[in-house]
Structure formats: C-alpha cells, structure tokens
Amino acid sequence: MEKIKRFILNEKDIPTRWYNIVPDMKNKPLPMLHPGTRQPLKPQDLYPVFAEALAEQELNTTDTWIDIPDEVREQYKVYRSTPLVRAYGLEKALDTPAHIYFKNESVSPVGSHKLNSALAQAYYCKKQGLENITTETGAGQWGTALSYAAKAFGLNLIVYMVKISFEQKPYRRSLMETWGAKVIPSPSVTTKAGQKIIAANPTYKGSLGTAISEAIEVATQTPNCRYTLGSVLSHVSLHQTVIGLEAEKQMEMAGEYPDVVIGCFGGGSNFSGISFPFLRRNILEGKTTRFVTAEPASCPKLTRGVFQYDFGDEAGYTPLIPMFTLGHEFSPAHIHAGGLRYHGAGTIISQLLRDGLIEAVDIQQLDSFKAGILFAQTEGIIPAPESAHAIAAAVTEALKAKEEGKAKTILFNLSGHGLIDMTAYDQYLSGKLSNYSLPDEEIANNTAKLEKII
Amino acid sequence: MEKIKRFILNEKDIPTRWYNIVPDMKNKPLPMLHPGTRQPLKPQDLYPVFAEALAEQELNTTDTWIDIPDEVREQYKVYRSTPLVRAYGLEKALDTPAHIYFKNESVSPVGSHKLNSALAQAYYCKKQGLENITTETGAGQWGTALSYAAKAFGLNLIVYMVKISFEQKPYRRSLMETWGAKVIPSPSVTTKAGQKIIAANPTYKGSLGTAISEAIEVATQTPNCRYTLGSVLSHVSLHQTVIGLEAEKQMEMAGEYPDVVIGCFGGGSNFSGISFPFLRRNILEGKTTRFVTAEPASCPKLTRGVFQYDFGDEAGYTPLIPMFTLGHEFSPAHIHAGGLRYHGAGTIISQLLRDGLIEAVDIQQLDSFKAGILFAQTEGIIPAPESAHAIAAAVTEALKAKEEGKAKTILFNLSGHGLIDMTAYDQYLSGKLSNYSLPDEEIANNTAKLEKII
User: Fold this and answer.
1) Model pTM score
2) Which residue, among A265, A286, A288, A261, has the nearest Cα to A276 in the 3D structure?
3) Which residues from chain B sit within 8 angstroms of residue A11, using beta carbons?
C-alpha cells in the first residue's frame, strides 16, 4: 500500500461545532474578577469591550459544544481542513522509531492558525451591528488574520502593532493594509496609555501588553466599536479547537492516536486548539496522552512564572485574570518569536497546568531556529519562529523515543509559516542571534509587585 | 447540497505520468538549432549542459506520456494535489454569471508552481551521479524552488539571481540560503559573461538572459555539474502538466469543464502546465476551450514580438530557438512581475500561437495589481504579481460574460502567492507604480538585429 503523506478531510467533515473544555474540567478555572469590585466577572461586564456573543462564550462553563455559524464555516472552507502531515522526512533525519505528525495551520491565507478565531470574532461583531473593531498585534500574525477577517465581514479595523515588529516587519504592515486595515505602531500618541508610556520612556519599542491597552482604550471610546484579542482568552481557545477536532479525525484516518501533543506557547491559542479535543478523551475516556507546551526561555511564564491574579495588559484595563504570569509589567527580550512574548497564560491553561493535566518546557532561541532549519530542509516548510519552538520540543521527544528504543506517536501543531519572518532566519544563519534565559531576579521583582488575591 | 469550495484529490489520484503535447500536435514545433552547425539539435548536443534524461525529454516528439519517477512523486505529495478552488467571493464581487475556478499552486512550500519541475530536474541530475547544479532566478520563485529540490535530493546549488531582484528581495535570498543554496547577484565577476556585461555597463541591474549566461558558463566549466532552467524549455512544460492533469480530474469532481483556461506568461511554464492537458482534448476530442496567455504590456513577446530563431540568453550560449521574441538583447522594464520579464517564449508555445490554438493578451501593471488586490480581498490569497496578470485576464473574461449575459466556466492558474513580494503591493498602494507599454521602436530595433534564419 502506498504511504500516505497528507491527510485531508472532505469539506462536509470540517467540524460544525467548537469544543468548550470547561464543562469537562473537574477543577474549573478560578473566575476572572472585575477590577473595580473584585467580584467574579459577568458577561455584561465585558459588553463594553467585546461583542456580546464573545463575552457569553468567554464565561460559558456549561455548554460543551458550540455551533460554528454557517457564515464562519463557509469562510473556513477557504483553507480548511488543513492537512495533517506525516513528517517522514524529519523522522528519517532523526533516525527515530517515533511517528511524527504535524497539523499544518500555515496553509491558511494569512499563514497561521490565527484566522480560525479572527473569522469568528469578526462575524460576531458584524452580527451585533458593529462597524469598527480594534486589536493589537505582536509578531503580526494576529493582526494579519484579523485584517483578513474584518475585510471578509465588512468591518473597519485599527491594529496597534508592537513598535519593534512594526519596524522589523514592514511586509506584515503591507499585508494588513492590503486587506484594508489601519496599522499604528505602539506605543503611540493616539491613546492615553500610549502617551503615558512614551512620556516615561520615549524610546520604548513596545510590548503586547501596551498595545492591548491602546486597542482597548480606543475600542471603548469609539462609537459602535469593540476590541478583539487573538489569544489568552477562553473564547479564542474555543474557536481554535477546530484544529484539534480536525486532527482527531485525521489521526483516525492515519490509524494512529497521539502519545504526546505539542504546541508552542505564547498566550495559548494554538496549543489549546490542537490539545483540548484530545485532552477531552484523557478526561472522559481515560486515555493517557501527554500535552506539552513549548515556550521560549526568555519568556517562561509556565515553567517559571507564579500563579496569581494579574492583568492581561500593561496599563491594567483588563479584568483580573487567574494566571501563570511573569507580571504584567514584564518587558520581554526582543527574541524573534514575537508571538510568544506575552507575560501570562489564560485561565483554562493555568488551571490545567496546576492540575498536572498538561506539561511545560522552555526552549532556547538557538535551539528553536536549529529545529526550524532542520524542519525546512526535511519537510520543506519554513516554520514561523514561534512554531519552531514546538518543532524543537517534538525533536526532543523523538530523540527520547530513539534513546528508549520505543515507538511513539508525536503530534505537534505547525501554527504558521515563517515566510514573512525571513529576517530572523537571516540573522540566525549569519550567527547574530543568541540564547537568553530570563534571570530569576527579574521574575521575582516583577511578580513581587502583584497584589496577592489568592 | 452544501456548496464545495475546494476540490482536492486523494494522494493515489496524483498523476503518475506527465503529458507531452508534441506527439499530439499536427504542426510540430520547428527544431532548435545547434548554434555552431545550424543543424537540428540532438539530445547529445545538450548533454554538456543538461542532465541526459532532461535532454532526452526536451527533444522527445514521440512519447505522449512520460512516467513520473516514484521519488519525484513522493516529493509531490508534500504539497500535491494542490486545491482547485471555486472563486465564489470573486464571482460575487464581479456580479458575473461566470463560474470562476483557480488552481492554487501557491500552496507549495516554496509558494509557487516552480517546484513541480525543480523536483524533477534535481532528481534526474542526482540519478546521473551529478553533485552540483546551477541556475538563474529572476523574481526568485524558480531559485527558491530549486534550492528546496536540491536539498531534497542532496545536490549543491549555485543560483545567479538578477541583481535588481537580489536587492529588492532580501527575503528571497534568505529563503534560498535556508535551503542551503549559494546565491550570487547577476551580473557578477564570477563569469566571463558577467565580466563583459559589467565592463560595458557597470551599473546594470541584470536580466534573466544575463543570469542564464552566467549559470550556463559555470555549469559547463565545473566538474560534475549541470545547468537547470525553470521555464521556456519543453521538458519544463512537460513537468508542469501535473497542474493541468490534476485540474482535469478536479473540474470533473466539480461537474464542469472550462470554456477558457488562463495563465500568466513569462517563459511559459505555468501556462503550459495548466493548459496542455485541456488543449489535448481540443485536439483529440474536438472540444472548443480557449487558452489565453496573460503577459505584461512591458514585455509583450506574444502579442507584439516577432517569430524568429533567437538565443535563450543574453550572451548567446544557448541553442537557437524558434520563438516569439523581443530579441535576446531586450532589457525589460523593472516591473514588479519579475518572473514575466523574459524576452521569448518556448518552441511549443510559439508554434501553438502561430497555429491559432492559443491566444495572447497583454496586461498593464496597474491593472494587474488592481486585480491582485481584488482577489486578495475576495478570495483571501495575496497573489504573486505574476499571477495577478492571470487574474486580471480572468476578470476581463468574467465581465465579458456578464455583459453578454452568458454563463461561462473560467479556469486560471494561481501560479504563486505574493507574500515575499509585499514591497510591490506597498508601492502600488502608495501610488508609486505606473503603467508602461514597450514602445514599437524598441521592439523593431531589437528584433532587427536578429539573424533571419526563417
């Protein structure tokens, strides 16, 4: 029988529902708190910031399955199902008995998984009659995805783009503009949050936390406008489960089931997406799959952060979120995996980690690029620097399998391609990049400032 | 019944043979001539330059079907079948009764159709025991594809990259280097051909013709080395027929047959690939599909060139090729569709055009970008500036169908994406690009220099 390389679903088999893991969790995530009253957040508290349907989804702890609206599913068909690929080339290069699979989310027209939630969020905003939306973007993947989605559903969009990325990635800006978005480097003078930060530090190159503050401020002060976020929150993870739900069917086509599932980790959206449907079967069916997050050593909130209530943004506009965090004032090193430079993790992920249902590893920058190049040369696809962290973790698992002489089925999510990030590869190839571990002292200083709510 | 957006073949249905159109042509192409003897070229004449199997394929006029080697077909599975997509979004925006389909070759890991032939060529070179190959690249699509293919089959590769592209497209260079190729801007001092051109014009920004001369010179003077070419030649078109052969099956899945098939035109590889399998059915079954090449108005060899024997490169190292040409000394305007800046067309295409079996239209640069943006905003994919020419021609056909109130099935080839060409979109969006038609006088002057062999 011919070996099959790529598993692709018929369009009718693209999922019709997203999976909400919260009802299946034995220990529920702690509630987010209203920053003023310190009471558990109600959906209405979020209405000024998010579309109402998204606020409801965010706090939905009872419905396991949420219907994907037809309009969103039609848009998914532009690129879904994404292929599940058997990485024969990588296996051979590693000489491993492991079977390595990856879910290729890089085939979306924006080059990453971010579109899965962008389309959903733009749809619900439009359905509510909104005309304008705002967001922030770090590496540019989310901003690009939302630009596409805003155009698809006829919304005006302003993107606050972390200044360092704005300068390093002019192609990203052009992409967003091609889809009609307005892109502003953050910090900017267009918001109070931005003005304050610029006054304190005029050469500051920005952070996701700052850009979020700016985008929220504009959303809440512009008529008929709401804010959208590309990661961290539970409704974003919900939309991303389309990845894992497809992968579940595709692994079945391949006649295998994963022993370990891996995703890189910034705010959690792609890791949640690939993992939760399989984690469901650990919870309900007693399967024993391991789930591994791969985060950068320069931003190690899951491996070395503290669990505490913290803000999602720099200025403190968001609710208080129970999260593993490095402190919301943490200013990350300028590693090239810009999408992983975020100080915290969402409520669900944080609870799963506390309960030992998922694991976390940290990856050094040079190891991520080494793995990325190996992947490019064996599987053909140049991974996003973010995704290269997942590849590095998969390589480690595959080599462990080799050492132990054990067959093992590894599944990782290739969250995006790196075609817009070639500057990073160029710097790596010319020896200009280095490793960086966040010092203990910096973590201690930042997290010491957090109010002790729990 | 649910509308299907993308048609994808099972891996077992990926073609096992390429289609050679020459045996089916009533009027065969005129022979290529040895530049010294002026006698029709024999495969052996090409052995010093090309791998022997490729030289045989180049001059094969008898075998209609050529088996795709298993090793190549395994590599095809990394990205094939590419989707056939129904462009519902574009149809709606144009309010046309036409059904528009496109074959999405942009999903290949290198972002274009070029990989279809690169893999075949690298395979045959390796099989012959070669260790080194050379090539040229204009826009960078071919060089990128061959870098990937050389790595896949374990060959060393030197790419001569047209200098203007080398400077404008640093990401392209990084891509090629990531796959292990050595990239040299052309003209360079590494060859006699390059030295001569630099001496005459020190600031010359290069052309495909010059880069070809350099790559051939190095290939013929390096031990265990051959040259490879990404377009124009018949064996390249042969490999690209995998596009049309898949599309034929996929159109059948869609229950339709194209009334018109469109491809952009540089040297002919993607147009040949999408067209020849359908053209076969015009020839053998009396179908009446139209075939339209879309070339830039700045490089109009098919619409306004002369049919004559001419060289394929600037220095005159190649055989004499019977072609529609603007003269091999033609120095093209620096439009952004770098892959379409070539002075001539291959022997098969030229004969088909003489026989009225295919048509040619020229497209202005601004019209191509306008169509490209419309496509990006309706179908989500940012097309390569080259492919945008095919889209512009498809839009024209769709609007004609609307005027005539006729349903019509249009198929075009999306040869690649534009993610590495965002500078071009940026310039278009900021109003910095303009139209350019090649003046009659320049065509007359260049072609007057050609020796009159026919």
Assistant:
1) 0.94
2) A261
3) 2, 4-6
Distance from C-alpha of B329 to C-alpha of B313, rounded to nearest angstrom: 8
ipTM for the predicted complex: 0.91
Residues of chain A contacting B428 with CB distance shorter than 8 Å: none
Which of A77, A152, A377 lies nearest to residue B6, judging by beta carbons?
A77
DSSP E strands, B342-430 = 359-363, 409-414
**Which tokens in the block code for residue B133?**
């190959």
A174: nearest CB among B11, B78, B425: B425
Task: Give burial (CB, 10 Å; 0-12/13-18/19+) of B3.
Answer: exposed
Shortest distance between the Cα of B424 and any Cα of chain A, in A, equals: 9
Give per-residue pLDDT as tens, A416-452.
Answer: 999 988 989 999 999 999 999 999 999 999 999 998 8
H helices present in B128-207, as ranges: 141-153, 163-168, 170-178, 192-200
Which token pair is B312?
């394929």
Residue A444 forms contact with B (CB below 8 Å): no
Q: Is the peptide bond before A213 cis (omega within 30 degrees of 0)?
A: no
Question: Which among B75, B419, B425 is the top mutation candidate for probing chain A, defined by the most A β-carbons within 10 Å of its own β-carbon?
Answer: B419
Where do the domains of chain B lie, and which CATH numbers do they carry? 6-13+72-111+237-447 (3.40.50.1100), 115-229 (3.40.50.1100)
Contact (Cβ atoms closer than 8 angstroms) between residue B369 and residue B388: yes
d(CA B387, CA B369): 10
Task: Compute the distance between CA of residue B56 and CA of residue B46 in angstroms, rounded to an integer.
Answer: 9
In this complex, is the C-beta atom of A306 within 8 Å of any C-beta atom belonging to chain B?
no
Is the backbone peptide bond immediately before A83 cis, with ω within 30 degrees of 0? no
